TrEMBL record:
Cofactor: pyruvate
Gene name for this UniProt entry: psd
The enzyme's E.C. designation: 4.1.1.65
Cofactor binding annotation: Binds 1 pyruvoyl group covalently per subunit.
Family affiliation: Belongs to the phosphatidylserine decarboxylase family. PSD-A subfamily.
Transmembrane segments annotated in the record for this chain: 21-50
Species name: Chelatococcus sambhunathii
Localization terms from the record: Cell membrane
PTM comment, free text: Is synthesized initially as an inactive proenzyme. Formation of the active enzyme involves a self-maturation process in which the active site pyruvoyl group is generated from an internal serine residue via an autocatalytic post-translational modification. Two non-identical subunits are generated from the proenzyme in this reaction, and the pyruvate is formed at the N-terminus of the alpha chain, which is derived from the carboxyl end of the proenzyme.
Protein name per Swiss-Prot or TrEMBL: Phosphatidylserine decarboxylase proenzyme
Residues annotated with Pyruvic acid (Ser) modification: 190
Site (Cleavage (non-hydrolytic)): residue numbering on this chain: 189-190
Keywords: Cell membrane, Decarboxylase, Lipid biosynthesis, Lipid metabolism, Lyase, Membrane, Phospholipid biosynthesis, Phospholipid metabolism, Pyruvate, Transmembrane, Transmembrane helix, Zymogen
Keyword Transmembrane: yes
């Protein structure tokens, strides 16, 4: 293996959505550094952070039928039984909602929680309040997807956060996804909600860290009851 290949396999890839931001930060760093050296170093640190923010690592996704995989890196900030947003047109009966909050240091590439066909995509403009707040599900800018996976319909909602200013979607209605496939990202700091079918119990607990495309958050085929969790 060449030195180039060794370095390429060691470094985490950067998503193409980040290239314009990296270029702008790099040019600004050179200009500011020419004016005053400390500004250049500050700009370099910001440029490196932007590279880190837009990282897009490969993931190994469990593929057994019925598994629901975390769509985002982050922390489980909420588990609640609620009526899904009306724009998803799921049903008016309560669903289990698992919310994953992404801070500005988490990878922000979102991945499909289940395999299936995208039956619905609905973008809703809104506010940019703290994504950890429960009311963010109704008030913030968001992009909702409904994925038909066998007999189930899973809702996935990307929610813009306090400093997020754009939700980017890579998919369209009618597209077919495999579990763990990239479907979008959010810039910068945000949240993703997953609406599980009624009666499906989550396999994660509040405060648990998740890895997009790898962490199992529910099993549609399981009849297991609610799990108990404790802090270590």
């Amino acid at each position: 293996m060449s030195i180039y290949e060794s370095i390429r396999k060691t470094l985490t890839p950067i998503h193409k959505e980040g290239y314009p931001f990296i270029a702008i930060a790099a040019v600004a760093s050179l200009v500011l550094g020419h004016l005053w050296a400390p500004f250049g170093w500050i700009g370099l640190i910001i440029t490196l952070w932007i590279c880190y923010f837009f990282r897009d690592p490969e993931r190994v996704t469990p593929t057994r039928d019925g598994l629901v995989i975390a769509p985002a890196d982050g922390r489980v900030s909420g588990i609640a039984t609620v009526v899904p947003p009306p724009e998803l047109a799921l049903s008016e009966e309560p669903h289990t909602r698992v919310s994953i909050f992404m801070n500005v240091f988490d990878c922000h590439v979102n991945r499909a929680p289940v395999p299936g066909r995208i039956a619905r995509i609905v973008y809703t403009p809104g506010l940019f309040i703290n994504a950890e707040l429960d009311k963010a599900s109704e008030n913030n800018e968001r992009n909702g997807l409904v994925i038909e996976s066998g007999p189930h319909r899973i809702g996935v909602v990307q929610i813009a956060g306090l400093v997020a200013r754009r939700i980017v979607s890579f998919v369209h209605e009618g597209d077919t996804l495999v579990a763990g496939e990239r479907f979008g990202l959010i810039r910068f700091g945000s949240r993703v909600d997953v609406y599980l079918p009624a009666g499906i119990q989550p396999l994660v607990g509040l405060g648990q860290l998740t890895i997009a495309g790898e962490t199992v958050i529910a099993d549609l085929r399981s009849e297991e009851g609610p799990r108990a969790f404790r802090s270590a």
